[in-house]
Every structure is written in structure tokens, then in C-alpha cells.
Amino acid sequence: VSQSRYTREEIKEIVAYASARHITIVPEIEMPGHAVAALAAYPEYSCTGGSFEVGKTWGVLDDVFCPKDETFTFLENILTEVITLFPSEYIHIGGDECPKTRWKACPHCQNRMKSENLKDEHELQSYFIQRIERFVNSKGRKIIGWDEILEGGLAPNAAVMSWRGTEGGIAAAKQKHFVVMTPSSHCYFDHYQGNPKNEPIAFGGYTPVEKVYNFNPTPKNLTSEEANYILGAQANLWT
After folding, report:
1. What angle do CA 13, 134, 143 make, to 5 degrees?
2. Global pTM value
3. Lowest mean pLDDT: which of 24-28, 52-56, 119-123, 219-223?
4. Under 8 Å CB-to-CB from 69, ≥6 apart: which residues?
5. What is d(CA 26, CA 96) in angstroms, rounded to the nearest whole number?
6. Of 160, 153, 164, 152, nearest in space to 177 by CA
7. What DSSP letter does each residue of 7-75 carry, written as one string?
8. Which residues contact 120 (CB under 8 A, 6 or more apart)?
């Protein structure tokens, strides 16, 4: 996951460099949460109208995309450009750590829940992800998202990255959805790998190399058929 800014030509160069080495780059455009950087520039796609400051530290912030039609147009335009630049089968749409605080107090969100017959804000998040999935599928691609996209009902063709342990991945595999296991307990490389006194600043935690090597991404409590839905593991490095 990169937060740098690239030109289209630089993206094409990076994709080609990776492809020549049999590596597929999967872009992640985060939604509905982790969106304050976008909302700082486009506050009209929030519930409150802003103003917002780009986050300078780690954290989960209450201001998220508001699921109104203009927001979907904005995101679909971005995804169209991303899909043009990245030939990957999957497009990552994030879906994690989306507080419902603003949605609960937002008249537009509450009206959307009534009009779509959604019983709570988790189902509103599922509506959001499923609507985006239909768009991405219409472009011949598939979505992958973090395990929170299971909440409120999983989008029909979505793959899941299981980061809050392996439970989300197990649940998705049992529903016949593809899974990448990436639990923070074993796969987060922004944790300390040795004595913090001897290492650069990290997010926290302690994940030594031996623990990572001993991680088996296929849980033993899946049937052989369900195990086929485990694509493998991913190491995360958040910067």
C-alpha cells in the first residue's frame, strides 16, 4: 500500500517493471473509511461538509464517505482511471475501519437506509461495497477487501483479506469466497522484529521472523474443498 503520488506514466513504468518479474500490482482505493485525505480535498462527499485536515498519525477517524449518488460518481470516476492503469484481475476497495458515527447522525444516510430497506449501518456499508462491486464487475474486474466487508452481508463475488485474525477468512471460505490470510498477529511487518531499542520506530507489537515463518495460511478446520479458497498469505508494511 503506497500513499505516494505518481503520474500516469510512472504508474505504467512500475506496472511493467513488476510484470516483467511475474508480480501483479493490486491497487487499493480505500472506501468508505480511511478517507479523510480525500475529504480534505472534496468535503462535499462527506456527511457533514467539512472542513477536514489530512491525518498526520495512525488512527481511525469518524469522517468517512457519505453514500450519496454524487459520492459514487466520484469514486467510479477514480476507479475507472485506476482500472485503466492497472491490469490486475482484482481491485482492492479497502472496506476496513469505517466508523458509523457520522452515518447514524446523517439524514441522507438514514434516508438511504429507508429507501434500500437496510436494517442498520452495517447493512449500509454492505450496500456501499456491493454497489461498488457491481461497477467494478461491469468493467470485467473483481473486488477484494478487508474482512470488515463481511459485516452486513458479503458482496456476491468479493474476495476477502483477513487481517483481524483468521476468523473472517474462515467465514469467507465457508461461503465459497476467495481469501488472502494476512492476520496482524503474524503478517504485519510494521511491528517490531527485535528489541525496540535496536530498531527503527514501528507501530508497536513484536513479530519475530520465526513467528512469521511458522504461519500456515490454511486453517486446519476447513474442509479440503473450503481450503481451495485460501489463495495464500500477504505481508503488510504500513508506512
Report:
1. 45
2. 0.93
3. 52-56
4. none
5. 17
6. 160
7. -HHHHHHHHHHHHTTT-----EEEESSS-HHHHHH-GGGSSS--------SS---S-----SHHHHHHH
8. 113, 152
> What span, in angstroms and rounded, lies between the C-alpha atoms of 23 and 17?
9
* 81: its cell numbers: 482511471
Bridge partners for 142 per DSSP: 90
Pairing state between β 90-94 and 28-31:
parallel
Closest residue by Cα to residue 68 from 91, 88, 90, 48: 48
- 38 near 45, Cβ under 8 Å? yes
Give dist(CA 73, CA 220) in Å, integer.
Answer: 43
Q: Which three cell numbers stand for residue 114?
A: 429507508
Element (H, E) at 156: none
What is the pLDDT confidence band of residue 3, given thresholds at 50, 70 and 90? low
CB-CB contact of 170 with 222 (8 Å): yes
The single residue listed with the C-alpha cell 469467507 is 172
